[in-house]
Amino acid sequence: MKSIFPFLLLLATLGVSCSDDDVSGQVAAQVSLRFNHNWDGEEFQTSDFNTVGYANLNGEKMSVERLRYLISDVTFESSDGSSFTVEGYNLVDLTNEKGLSYQLSDSVPVGNYTNVYFTFGFDNDNNQNGIYPDLNTALWNVPEMLGGGYHYMQLEGKFIDSTQTETGYQYHAIRAVDNSGEELVFEDTFFQVDLGPVEIQQNSTIAISMNIAEWFKNPNQWNLNQLHSMMMPNFEAQKAISQNGKTVFGLEGVFQE
Amino acid sequence: MKRPIILVLLIMLSVACSKSEGGEPPEYTATPLSLDVPAFFQENILAPVIPITNPLTEEGVALGKKLFFDPILSADNSISCAECHAPSSAFTDTDRFSDGVNGVLGNRNAMPLFNLAWNFDERFFWDGSATSLEDQVFHPITDATEMANTWDKVISALEASSEYTDMFLSAFGEGKIDSLKVARAIAQFERTLISGNSKFDKFLAGELELTEAELNGRDIFMDETRGDCFHCHGNPNNPLWTDNLFHNNGLDSTFVDLGLGRLTGDPADNGKFKSPSLRNLAFTAPYMHDGRFATLEEVINHYSEGLQNSATVDPLMKKVAQGGVQLTEQDKTDLKAFLLTLSDDEFISNTAFREQ
Fold first, then answer.
1. DSSP, res A116
2. Which site among A76, A123, B15, B89 is 20 to 30 Å from A186 CA-CA?
3. In this predicted structure, what is the pLDDT of residue B174?
C-alpha cells in the first residue's frame, strides 16, 4: 500500500487539475460574448427578416434581409491602466444565425474591469487582404481596387422609396477609401465599442445588444432615398456609417454561469 | 518496489483498453484516399467537407465512378448519371432539360459537378433540397423524370453482378449491397471532381498573363459601381466562385418555379435559387436554373438590362428599377472574356474523371 501511494497521488493530482475550479479559487474564467439585436428596443430576430415594416428616423419603412458584421480583439481594461486582449475575430451572421455566441479563445483573469471593449471590424494591422480562410470562404473580402481586406458589415434589405416602390439597399461598411485619384486614400472607419465596467468572477457570458435602427439615426439621419446603394466606394458614406455605428452597441448584462 | 507496481498497473490498463485477440476478426478497412486538393485551395479557404461516416477510399471512389457511368441504375438500363452530367460539359447537360428514361423532361437544368466538397452548408440542387452529397444521390435514381427506378430493382441488378459484389466488398468490407452504400460510393467519386487549374488560377499563380480585356473584365466583375458580381460569385481569394447560397437574381416578376420557397414554404424564399459557380462556364451552357439563356451574352445582358422586379428580388440586384447595371458593349465583351478565364480545360479532359 505504501508503495502505490505516489501513483494514486499522481492520479488524484491529475483529477484535481482537470476538474472545474470552485468559484472562490478561480483565477481565470471562460468568457463568451452573446450578440442580441433589436430595433429601437423591440427584439429583432432572423424570423423578423423580410418584413418591410420597420421605420427609420427619416420615416422610411424598411426591412432587413441580411445582417452580417465582424468584431475583433476583445479587451478587458483594469483601473490601473493595464489591459488584457483576446486577439481574434468573430463574424456575426444573423441571417443564418451563426456567430451569435463567441467563445473567447483565451481564459480571462477574474477581476473587476473598468471597461471591456472590442473593435468593430478590423484595425488596419488585422485587415490584411485574403489572409483569413474562413472569411474568404464567407466571401467577406473587399475588392483590391478598394484596398482589399475585409468588410466590417453587410446590412441589406428593402425600403419604400419616395415613389412608394420597394427598393433594395446595401448598407455595407468597409475602411473608407477615396479611389478618385491615382492613389487610393484611406481613412480609418473601424471603431472601438466600449461596453463599460464588467465584473468577471467566474465563467460568464457578456450579452451585447445591437440596435439596428441606430445605424440610420445618430449623428447622421440617414436618407435612404438619397443613399441606398454602392456605398463601398463612397468615401463620405463610409465615414458617416462609422460615425453612426458608435452608438449602435450596448451592454445588456453579464451572466455568470 | 514502486516502479514495478506502477508498471503492472499501466500494463493492466493497456490490456484492458486493447482488443482481445482471437475474438472478433479484425475490422476491414479499405485503402484510405486523400483528396488531391490544389495548394491554392488549402491556403485560401476552409478544408473540404468529408463526412466521418463516409471517408474516401480508393475502392469506394472506384466503385462510385463505375456506378456513375453505368446505366444499370436506371429503370430500363438506358441512362447513367453521366448522361445528364457529362465530363466534357463539366458534368452538366448541354440540353436545357434532360431526358429521363421515358423521354420525360425535367424542369431544371442539370447542375455541373465539381468542387462539391467545399459546399460547407451542404445544400445541394438548385433549391437546396438535398442536405448532403449522399442524400443528393437518392433523388435522381427514383425520380420519375430521371432514372425512374426503384431501390429494390437497383439492388437486385447490382447483386446479380459478381463484379459489383466484389467491388462493394472491397469498398465497404461486405458484399451486401444497399442504397446507402450506393449513395456513399457515388458521393465519394463526386468529391474527387476538383477543378482548380483554369487560366485565371494560372494567372494567380504567376504562370501567365491575362489580356487587357480579361483584366478589365475582372475589374468590372469586382467593381460595385459596374458589374458588382463579387458579392455572390466571389473574388480571387476564393477559388469556388460561388457563395453556395440562394438568391432571386431578378429572372422573373412572377414565379412558375418557386425554388427555395417550395422547399421552405416561406414566401420570402420564392424565386430563390442557388448561386452556381462561375467556373467552367465555357462548358456549362445553357445557363440559369431553367437553362433559359443559351449564351453568356444573354446572361450578361440579363444583369445589364433585363432584371425583373419582385418582392423577393435580392437587394444586391440594386439597379432593378433601371433593368440592371447598364454595362457598355465594351464592358460586356470584356466581362465575358474574364468569365471565360475561369474555365478549366484540364478538368474536363482529366482521364480520372472519364469512363475507362
1. E
2. A76
3. 87
> Which chain B residues touch A4 with a CB distance below 8 Å?
2, 5-6, 9
Q: Which of A11, A91, A137, A180 to mutate to test the interface with B (most CBs of B within 10 A)?
A: A137
- Contact between A185 and A238 (Cβ < 8 Å): no
Nearest to B264 by CA among A46, A129, A13, A160: A46
Contact list in B for residue A232 (CB cut-off 8 A) is 224
Contact A137 B45 (CB under 8 A): yes
> Which chain B residue has its CA at the smallest distance from A65's CA?
B315
Q: Does the bond joining B286 to the residue before it have cis omega, within 30 degrees of 0?
A: yes
Measured distance CA(A171)–CA(A228) in Å, rounded: 7
CA gyration radius for chain A?
22
The CA–CA distances, whole Å, from B144 to B104, B213, B256 equal 8, 46, 20
Whole-angstrom distance, CA of residue B185 vs CA of residue B192: 11
Please name the residue that has the C-alpha cell 446603394.
Answer: A229
Of B352, B30, B28, whose CA–CA distance to B191 is shortest? B352
What are the phi and psi torsion angles at B139 (to 5°)?
-65, -55
Average pLDDT in the A11-23 region?
Answer: 38
Residue A213 Ramachandran class (φ > 0 left, ψ -120 to 50 alpha, else beta) = alpha
- Partner residue facing A130 (CB), from B1, B219, B237: B237
Residue type, A229: S
Across the interface, which of A7, A66, A156 has its CB nearest the CB of B9?
A7
pTM for the whole structure: 0.91
Helix (H) or strand (E) run with residue B222 in it: helix B212-222
Q: Residue A101: exposed, middle, or buried by beta-carbon count in 10 A (0-12, 13-18, 19+)?
A: middle
Average pLDDT over residues B19-46: 83
Q: What is the DSSP string of A52-115?
A: --EE-TTS-EE--SEEEEEEEEEEEE-TTS-EEEEEEEEEEETTTTBSSEEE-SS-EE-EEESE
Compute the mean pLDDT over every residue in chain B, rounded to the nearest whole number: 93
The separation between CA B210 and the C-alpha centre of its own chain, rounded to angstroms, equals 27
Tell me the shortest Cα–Cα distance from B345 to chain A, in angstroms. Answer: 24
Say how many CB pairs under 8 Å bridge A and B. 89
Model confidence at B316: pLDDT above 70: yes
Q: Which residues have a Cβ under 8 Å from the Cβ of B287 and sit 6 or more positions away?
A: B109, B276, B281, B293, B294, B296, B298, B299
For residues A188 and A124, the answer to whether their CB atoms sit within 8 Å is: yes
E strand or H helix that includes residue A11: helix A5-18
**What pLDDT was estimated at residue B133?**
97
